[in-house]
Amino acid sequence: MQIKCNVLDRQFQMYQAEYEAAALRVLRSGWYVLGNEVLAFENAFAAYTGRKYCVGLNSGLDALILSVRALGIGVGDEVIVQSNTYIATVLGITENGAVPVFVEPDEYYNIDAAKIEAAVTDRTKAVLVTHLYGQASNMAAVVETARKYHLELIEDCAQSHGACFDGQMTGTFGRAGCFSFYPTKNLGAFGDAGAVVTDDEAFADKLRMMRNYGSKVRYHNEIEGVNSRLDEMQAALLRVKLGHLSALNQERKELAQRYDAGIVNPQIVLPKLRTKAESIYHQYVIRCTKRDALQAYLAKQDIQTQIHYPIPPHLAACYAHLGCHKGDYPIAEQYADQVLSLPIYTGMTGEEQQYVIDRLNAF
Ligand SMILES: *Cc1c(COP(=O)(O)O)cnc(C)c1O
User: Which portions of the chain are predicted below pLDDT 70?
Assistant: First the structure.
């Protein structure tokens, strides 16, 4: 049996008729970028998250970059971010000339909220939390610290569409919830797409201007904007998928529960859930001190796995100029050496999953 880490066409097949109808509707409409489909998706996604406004964009990275920029955060400012996140989270900061200040993760792979306070300086402008692998961060503690120091709070929800903390949806705790709809995400498009949700009307208006060359009225460029427009095709397809997101997330939760119950190997550390936190299992991430051997062993049995992520941002070649060294963030470095993401995808069969579980237990 061959098991891929991710299989995207099975969820397409589940809702194929709906997707095809939406795609045809767009093709026949004669309008392809920023139109009624984008508006309809923005309204539907704002309602889903419970926020007032949603601004559709080109990607999750743009959602982060433009959110930081719209808050006026730039050169000389510091933004607190966890040391084990995806590079895009950090790029959202550095693309604006601001400085990332890394804080180590906790045992749930999210920012260790107890360590945020020590990282605050008089240049700190914001905290940017990533709900990594689909599990909500410790938002009670994050919000409390952000309030105490009057910091902006931005959430990277690229992996947490629909995941709640204490019953509240991720993306609704601060000024901005930044989402990616890259095809592999739980709410994935069929190309690149992203969005920001917020309750702040002026902030949403600014993002709307920024995404379209800084203009509200065509050719009246009020600010230096970018092209980060969402297209009608992705918006229409996303609205179809949004209608099934709860069911899709539920399916992943059940797959995760089967891994939880089935994997019994003292060499493997299973993912843990924080009290009050929910995970939508964007990834199912285990840890093993013999990670590379385990990955090679699984590959030999035709089981594909991935590493999210092998190099923490502070050690990435592109950030050599930050002057960080190996050993600066030991927890993030340990995770980078030990984490392994198992196959998990909509439509994964019981037989496929049992094969993975059996091979893991035999390692
Ligand atoms: C995918 C991802 C992004 C970037 O999203 P794109 O749409 O690929 O630009 C940002 N942050 C995290 C945590 C992600 O997983």
Answer: none
